[in-house]
Amino acid sequence: MLPHSKKETETGETRVDTETPGSAKGGQEPRVQSVARAVKILMAVAQSENGLKTIEISRKANLPKQATYHLVHTLMTSGMLTHNEQGLHVLGLRIGTLAEAFRRHLSPPQHLTPFVRKIANETGETAYATGWWAGEIVNLTTWRGSNPIQASEVTHGSYIDAHARASGKLLLAFADEETRSHYLAEHALPARTSQTITELSQLHEEFQLIREQGYAVDREEYTIGLHCLAVPIDAGASPYALTISAPTERFKQRFTDFLEIMRHIASDLSGLSK
Fold first, then answer.
1. I want to staple 157 with a disulfide (CB 3.0 to 4.6 A). Which of 50, 103, 175, 244 is the partner?
2. Which of 79, 100, 121 is the last residue of a domain?
3. Where is the HTH iclR-type domain (predicted)?
4. pTM here?
């Protein structure tokens, strides 16, 4: 066997992925550098507002310019990246195929959906369940409420800026120290609004408060005009959270009712999961 072939065999050693929905584990060392770099490029573009120049990708992904140029070219020819009207690199059509497949494959645990629906029915607000998936926090299922003015529906599988969301803060607060530290090291704390917590020390104080009171609130930290309430399942031992979103004024008026309803339903769900 040629040395090059042998190297490829060793580098491409098959690894069995045992992570499942609800797993907070993630962040294993990548085995193939070029693949890891390509992923960093795609993530940099995905997290940009309107696309990036090649030099901007290099800087944001912390990659050498030459390597970035070649990888971007490969991603362009494979349909993973394309150019917009401004000549910036944006995600290509094939990423849409992957995103749709991800949402299709990301099936929520069957026992969660009826309780999310019950929360929406009893509060009249948009309700959803979030949870850990391979080291990331994702939205698992959403149910629209009956009130005429509703919060925008959270896309299935989509989840960014956990530090600015009630559910994200709650799941981080109740996560083990290693999981929480790794997540925060890998994710920036951008200011979504003037209310967003962007200081790590202040965020840890928020986590302590959440653990003490047993729930988390987003006070226009993600979107102006919107408040959210998240409660844990199994007192935080479960990797899932239940959440509602409501217009600020209605949320303030009905907060006590919302909290009572959600705690009761979370208690029922906790009993079912034991």
1. 103
2. 100
3. 32-93
4. 0.65
